[in-house]
Amino acid sequence: MQELVVNYQRGQRTKCLELLFKIKAMRILSVSAALALVMLQAGCLTRSVTVAGSLPTPLVQRIPASIGIYYSEEFKSFEHKEALPESGSYRIDLGGQNLDFFRNLLGAMFAEVIEVNQPSVQEGDNLDAILIPEIVKYGFLVPTVSTLTFFEASIEYQITVLDRSGKDLGQLRIVGYGKAEGAMFGSGEAVGEATMLAIRDGGARIATELSPRIAALLADPEETKGLAQ
Q1: What are the angstrom distances between the C-alpha of 31 and each of 18, 69, 85, 86, 88?
Q2: How open is the CA angle 139-99-93, to the nearest 5 degrees?
Q3: Which residues have CB under 8 Å from 193's CB, separation 6+?
Q4: With the C-alpha atoms ordered 73, 119, 177, 86, is the resulting torsion angle positive or negative?
Q5: How much is the pLDDT for 23?
Q6: What SS3 class is residue 139?
């Protein structure tokens, strides 16, 4: 009789342990499902970033020349879209901020700046040269990809120079860099801040590197090797 009681108690303990294991397994599955859902939501999330902020105009010696500037629609409304693993998708609108900065920058570099409607010299244009800025490449990194603690952005600009007859004198490429600490901003704000700093850095490089080359070119139109790269 005692043996039957012992076997019964053992059987009950076994059933209790099996039930406990099942409950734990269900909890683990629930947690895993919740984590998977969070990761799925992160992967499907699209962050819309509009780059904004204060961008000071570099102080440079103004070149005494009348310059035409052609801004393409792509340049004026430039957007970058990218999907990153574990970080979701980003849509970054930097065209408006970039355009405003270029207008201020080039206005400070030359005595007269006239925006033209097409990338060519027209009869009657009283211009010393035409500049055509482009964004060749834009990229950014977030901590989940770079494994660093900050967000990074880079912009590669190309500026084509035409003389008063429309001759292509060459292109100059400059890259601007920017970074923002992740602890100070949300993800979208950090990307926007890094991008703004990249625009500022690119503008400073244009002011310091392009300005003297353009000045030398206007003084001697036959000398183009100092500009082209």
Answers
A1: 20, 58, 21, 18, 21
A2: 45
A3: 53, 151, 178, 180, 185
A4: positive
A5: 46
A6: strand
Instruction: List phi, psi (to 5°) of 30.
Output: -65, -45
The pTM (predicted TM-score) of the whole model is 0.73
Q: Smallest Cα–Cα separation from 92: which of 61, 54, 138? A: 138
Residue type, 50: T
Instruction: Please enumerate in sequence order all residues whose Cβ is within 8 A of that of 225, keeping only pairs 6 or more positions apart, or say none.
Output: none
* One-letter-per-residue 3-state SS of 60-123: CCCEEEEEEECCCHHHHCCEEEEEECCCEEEEEECHHHHHHHHHHHHHHHEEEEEECCCCCCCC
Kindly tell me the burial class for residue 214, based on how many C-beta atoms sit within 10 Å of its own C-beta (0-12, 13-18, 19 or more).
buried
Residue 107 amino acid letter: G
Secondary structure of 150-181 in HEC code, one letter for each residue: EEEEEEEEEEEEEECCCCEEEEEEEEEEEEEE
Tokens 């970080």 correspond to what residue?
87
| C-alpha to C-alpha distance for 110 and 220, rounded to whole angstroms | 17
Task: Give the residue carrying structure tokens 């201020």.
Answer: 104
Yes or no: say if 200 and 99 are a contact pair by the CB < 8 Å rule: no
CA dihedral (176, 182, 183, 186) positive or negative: positive
> Judging by DSSP bridges, how do beta strands 168-181 and 150-163 pair with one another?
antiparallel
Report residues of the chain scoring pLDDT below 50: 2, 4-9, 17, 19-21, 23-24, 28-43, 226, 229
